[in-house]
Specification:
With 244 residues, the chain is an alpha+beta fold. The protein contains four helices and eleven strands; from the N terminus they run αβαααββββββββββ. A four-stranded antiparallel sheet has the order 1-8-3-10. A three-stranded antiparallel sheet has the order 7-4-9, with no helix packed on it. The protein has a two-stranded antiparallel ribbon with strand order 2-11. The structure holds fe (ii) ion.
Length: 244
């Protein structure tokens, strides 16, 4: 990957996000989709683990925080689902391959609410569109420049064994919807997401899927990863260093 140009870096610092079209080739996207298809085809989700993904605070605590499935997802492939995927008994209402929500979020949030570091500003989201992300199928929306005013809330782990497994400190303020700017991108694009920039994606109500692959990087040098974060490195899989 080429370096960012000075103007791209400046745009990222100004807006808190940056779109890099053409990061992956069409062939790489196809290979990624094939692998996603294989993983989903082999998916075997225990009934009690049929966790629907949501960033709505109340539902999140109930649906995710109370399950080991969520809290232990750091070093495993776990499956999180769109709302309305299951009936009340946990049976799939839609074909499983169409049901996966993750990777993606819905309601407005800052990643640092979930991936908190001291100091702030050390976490970078990498969001790769494996398929075109459009206004219709759930592209990302950002409030440009919203990454400079700190973190409004934090999800923290509760004491081991207590339920629910996580709770929030602070709350997500009401956001002015008119401040959000849509960011439609073509397949293969990489979107860099500052850990504190406010972003969301709308529910995909179209008949076109919008697969994306996302992960986060942390500048580890001089940074404390909060021991209260829901996601913790394990002995089996410490956070892998990219360079030393
Ligand atoms: Fe996010």
């Amino acid at each position: 990957m080429a370096w960012l140009s000075p103007s791209q870096l400046q745009k990222f610092q100004q807006d808190g996000f940056l779109v890099l079209e053409g990061f992956l080739s069409a062939e790489e996207c196809v290979a990624m989709q094939q692998r996603i298809g294989e993983i989903v085809a082999e998916m075997d989700v225990p009934l009690h683990c049929r966790t629907e993904f949501s960033t709505q605070e109340e539902e999140q605590l109930r649906a995710q925080g109370s399950t080991d499935y969520f809290l232990s997802s750091g070093d495993k492939i776990r499956f999180f689902f769109e709302k309305g995927v299951f009936d009340e008994k946990g049976n799939f209402l839609v074909p499983p391959e169409k049901s996966i929500n993750k990777i993606g979020h819905v309601s407005p949030h800052q990643d640092a609410s979930f991936l908190y570091t001291e100091p702030l500003g050390r976490v970078l989201g990498m969001w790769i569109a494996v398929e075109d992300a459009t206004l219709e199928n759930g592209c990302l929306w950002f409030i440009p420049g919203s990454h400079t005013s700190g973190v409004s809330r934090r999800m923290v782990r509760a004491l081991v064994g207590s339920a629910p497994g996580t709770s929030f400190l602070g709350s997500e303020p009401a956001r002015d919807n008119s401040l959000f700017v849509p960011t439609p991108v073509q397949r293969g694009a990489l979107v860099l997401i500052h850990g504190e920039v406010v972003h969301k994606s709308k529910q995909n109500l179209s008949d076109r899927s919008r697969q994306a692959y996302t992960f986060h990087l942390m500048e580890a040098s001089g940074t404390t990863w909060s021991p209260e974060n829901w996601l913790q490195p394990t002995a089996e899989l410490p956070f892998p260093p990219l360079y030393t």
